[in-house]
Amino acid sequence: MSNNKFTTISTIGRQGLIQKIADSYSDSTNEVPVGIGDDAAVLRKNEKEFGLLSSETYTEGVDFDPTFTPMHHLGAKLLTAAVSDIYAMNGKPTAILINLAIPNRVSVEMIEQLYKGFQQGCKDYDCTISGGDVSASHGALTISLSVYGVVEQNKLVRRKGAKIDDAICLSGDIGGAMAGLRILLREKQHWQDSGIEVMEPDLSSYQYVVQRQLLPFARKDLISGFEENNIVPSAMTDISMGLINDLSNLCRASEVGAYIYQAAIPIHLETRDVANELEEEVDKYAMFGGEDYELLFTLPEKDVDAFSKKFNDFVVIGKINVQKNSVKVQLAEGDIWEFEDGKQKI
Known about the structure:
The protein is of the alpha+beta class. The chain has helices spanning 9-24, 71-87, 108-125, 176-194, 207-214, 220-228, 243-254, 269-277, 282-288, 301-308; strands at residues 41-44, 49-59, 92-102, 128-136, 142-152, 167-171, 235-238, 257-261, 295-299, 314-321, 326-330, 336-340, 343-344.
């Protein structure tokens, strides 16, 4: 009988697996000064600039549902997810590589629609499709996208860098992507239960949240705002896995803690309406939903005041403190939830 240990990935989770890989392969070199552990890898480009490299992989049935995801929306969303990692390092995307593993049931026309989404995303974010690869798949459609970008060396922002008493800032609003997903899953269930071959649900009352799920937009405008006002955050990441997970990652990298206020978390009215309609907790959408692709960043108080006069689509939700790897959320009622490495402490 083998004594080899077998640990299921589910026992440590996605982030735990990434951390194990990062702990084993965290070496840096002169050419790759920052490797695993940030939103993008950092490559030495020249004396003034770094190159940035990141990737995203979407698998049918895991990361997207073709029942309610138009192919052109899927292309645009995947490109947004990849580009958001470059923005999270305060950089600008320039080039895109796309790899596809395609099953026989996917048509040429479907792939053309997918690329329309990629092309629209490239127009939105000022980058170019520059290559890739195509192979066959016996099962799910799988799409992998790599994005290359650039950033001035003195403006590079990492998850590491948050300082004690820095303000924790968040752009836009969060939870909308999860609200949109909940609505789409409900309508899919209604369609399956109805037995009707073709069904077109009326989603007009959920336009904002459905768009946040199917066609999110990365915060190019915020990065431009930093540049125009000579602001460089002390640390930054994007909201891809949910506020608590992403803030925990930032705190771990910076070796600090965070204290945030539930009442300060920006949530759109339509997101609240969906949660009420489905009798679910909207704060869970915001704190654990993910895929909003807003930017979470830290700034000294003096920079918050100066920047808020020039760019107003962000709010302060809390402050950095000395309690390493701890994220505390003060609820509106006064109770406090505490999370350590993204997991709630009982």
